[in-house]
Amino acid sequence: MSKSGTPEDALTAAFAAARRTAPEPDADFLARVLADAEGVQEGFAKAKVAEAAAEARFGTTSRGGWRGVFQALGGWPAVSGLGAAAVTGLWIGVAPPERLDATAQQVWGEDITLALQPDIGTDLFPDEEG
Amino acid sequence: MPLDAMNDVPDQALLVLFANGERDAARALTLRLSPRVLAHAYRLLGNRAEAEDVAQEALLRLWRVAPEWRQGEAKVTTWLYRVVANLCTDRLRRGWRQRPLEAAGEPADAQASVADDMQDRARTDALQAALQALPDRQRQAVVLRHIEELGNPEIAEIMEISVEAVESLTARGKRALSDMLRGRKDELGYVE
Fold first, then answer.
1. Do A53 and A67 share a domain, yes or no?
2. So what's the ipTM on this one?
3. Residues with Cβ < 8 Å from A115, sequence gap 6 or more?
4. How far apart are CA B46 and CA B56, in angstroms?
5. How would you classify residue B69: left for phi > 0, otherwise alpha for psi between -120 and 50, otherwise beta?
6. What is the reported pTM?
7. How big is chain B by its Cα radius of gyration, in Å?
8. Would you call A126 helix, strand, or coil by DSSP?
């Protein structure tokens, strides 16, 4: 039996002993793990068969149509972000906060009003009236 | 692909084959990963039966996540160490504690002499009992560093903490283990 001189040496020896005596998986355990693995693989195969059947029946993949658009955008995280941005934009348009007006004035240097339908009747064809 | 030919295939590639329904990939991954997962669970729990349950559950989660595995991100073993640690922590938080010094099973090295084997067993038992007395995170860090022999950056990734925090945990853990084992110097085979 080997003897070590310091607690540090003893601890190092104990770690090495722990590596040498690592518990080995026995046949029963390996069989259980492998059975799980094969069961999951069968599930994948069944899912693929079901997807192929749905494709054959409806002529589209399960990722087509709106679901495809939804997936292409990035799923729920992306769509919820887009939704939040849209609602915020609508709110600012309908009821702009006072500070927004003040900020716009500071940026542009004057009070600006934007009309959705400019008055184009007189300015575009001035000569025709005279 | 024959089972022997899979020895050199990386874990992530085997996982892709597994997700594609390759039976040999399931066997290769089971044989490759089970020993490490079981040993790690045992080191954290100190109980063979509980460790087997945790290892089986961790591997089942790996099988299920295989089709969505993102290549080039975390190593398969890094992911497994994290899952095993989380499952062990859950069990310990639910109030389960190991019975002290439960046998881990047959030693891996059958060639060792009987005397060396007894010494190893005594040292391992004393160490395991001391490990169980450490706080969960210290135990996890010490096991990963000094028994699994992983580098600090990988341990930091597994535990989702900084490398400095890993160094602090392992240093405190080793100090505590030394203190605890000083009282069992005969079992550990050292003289002062």
1. no
2. 0.81
3. none
4. 16
5. beta
6. 0.68
7. 18
8. helix
